[in-house]
Design brief:
Blueprint: H1 16-82, H2 85-101
């Protein structure tokens, strides 16, 4: 050994292999994280598309229900407008029978 504490003439030890292993481990973990983020984003996009389809179906169904209720309401208005004619039509029918009997 010399005066600085370094061994002369022996094998030279380099820490380069340790850095390579740590670098490979970090790259592997980084790739896993990137894959996880991409997969999570894809899952969120599919879920949003499914929610949009469900919302569109619900809105469409509500529109058809509203239209059918409007038709029912207009039929009720038409029946209400025809109700005052019922006594007159009954009277005409009974008079017609009376004329046919003579």
């Amino acid at each position: 050994m010399n005066r600085h504490g370094v061994r002369i003439g022996g094998p030279v030890l380099r820490p380069g292999g340790q850095v390579l292993i740590v670098t490979l481990l970090a790259i592997t973990l980084l790739m896993g994280l990137i894959f996880f983020v991409y997969n999570f984003g894809d899952h969120v996009n599919r879920r949003l598309a499914l929610q949009n389809a469900a919302d569109a179906a619900a809105i469409s169904g509500a529109g058809w229900t509203a239209r059918s209720m409007n038709v029912i309401a207009m039929n009720n208005v038409a029946v209400t407008r025809c109700l005052p004619w019922c006594p007159f039509l009954t009277l005409c029918r009974s008079r017609r029978r009376w004329h046919l009997r003579r």
